[in-house]
Task: structure prediction
Amino acid sequence: MNRLAKTFLLTATAAALTLSVIGEASARDRWHRHNNGDAALVGGAVGLATGLIVGSAIANQPRYYEEPRYIDPPYEPEYEAVPVYRAPRYYAPVRADIEPWTPQWERYCSYRYRSFDPRSGTFVGNDGREHFCTAG
Result:
């Protein structure tokens, strides 16, 4: 069925259900002689609007999902990369000739070694022994 027919069918169904409920409610009030014609018209309009909304919501649902297709060009490397291994470079530390027991020597050794003792001029190395600090 096409979308228009579905919408019309659902609208008619909703309107019929609304009008039947309003008609039953107004039948109970027949002894009071109120003006029930206006209520029936309002109820019909509400049913019609409800049917239109529900019908269009149902009719507009997607039926299936088609995944997008991506077409990539085939990958062709321009050249085959050959890894190049180079030996690491080692740089000699910059040596400054600092005389022992000077303020510069003491500053250098205290920054360089945490266990530096300025009274003896030694530090404790990784081997656990005391070594004299030579800066330079």
About this structure: The chain has three helices and two strands. The radius of gyration is 47 Å. Residues 3-59 form one domain.
